[in-house]
Amino acid sequence: MARSKSSQRWLKEHFDDKYVLRAQQEGWRSRAAYKLLEIQEKDQILKKGMVVVDLGAAPGGWSQLAADLVGKRGQVIALDILPMDPLPDVVVIEGDFQEEPVLAELMKTIDGQPVDLVMSDMAPNMSGVRSVDQPRSMYLVELTLELAKTVLKPGGDMLLKLFQGEGSDVFLKECRQHFGKVIIRKPDASRGRSREVYLLARNYQV
Question: pLDDT for 148-180, tens place per residue?
């Protein structure tokens, strides 16, 4: 089947992308690792010994970097509905965390430990129709916030992908009600034409 012009353009952009090439050369599972790395350099959200929950983790770029930064004394728990190859020092849970058995497995893995950071690079399967895609993306960030409120320790942080558009300003206000500080980051590795930004919410207020 012939590819559309838009898919051909995406493929060319993807394989010419300097971050895709760097990820292949440096052994990262995805170019997304560089987004987290840039945020880490600015905000120091990952430290030795931390417990981290990574939502929508596959193929594992963020979990891979997080495990390296939290070290052997820390723990990274990666969740995704998609299969994900094992990573050293990462607990992988396959399934939808909205479903009770998956959430129960997460809580069992945490085993009462205080969670320092909930992070999510989740995005819906984009249709290209903003009126469809934006509500789907907002649903995912709302789910992330609800889980963060369930597992985060007082003073913990949340990092998530947010697509700017209808509902995003309301969501920002909601986050400010639960966290001491809310910052928007646009890493260099995030494609300039994309509406995606990263919301970093710090100091969770129980």
Answer: 999 999 999 999 999 999 999 999 999 999 999
Helices 32-43 & 61-70 angle (0-180, nearest 10): 40
Beta strand segments in 32-173, E: 51-55, 75-80, 90-94, 115-120, 152-163
DSSP 21: H
Please give the backbone phi and psi of residue 158, each rounded to the nearest 5 degrees, phi first.
-135, 135
The CA dihedral of 48, 49, 50, 52, to the nearest 10 degrees, is 100
The answer to whether the peptide bond before residue 59 is cis (omega within 30 degrees of 0) is: yes
φ and ψ at residue 79, rounded to 5 degrees: -120, 140
* Number of domains composing the chain: 1
* Cβ proximity of 78 and 57 under 8 Å: yes
Query: b vs e for 96-134, b when ≥16 Cβ sit within 10 Å of the residue's Cβ?
Result: ebeeeebbebbeeebeeeebbbbbbbbeeeeeeeeeebb
Q: If you average pLDDT over residues 70-87, what whole number do you get?
A: 96
Which token pair is 4? Answer: 């559309």
Active site amino acids: 161
Q: Domain of 104: which CATH number?
A: 3.40.50.150
- Domain assignment of residue 66, given as a range: 5-204
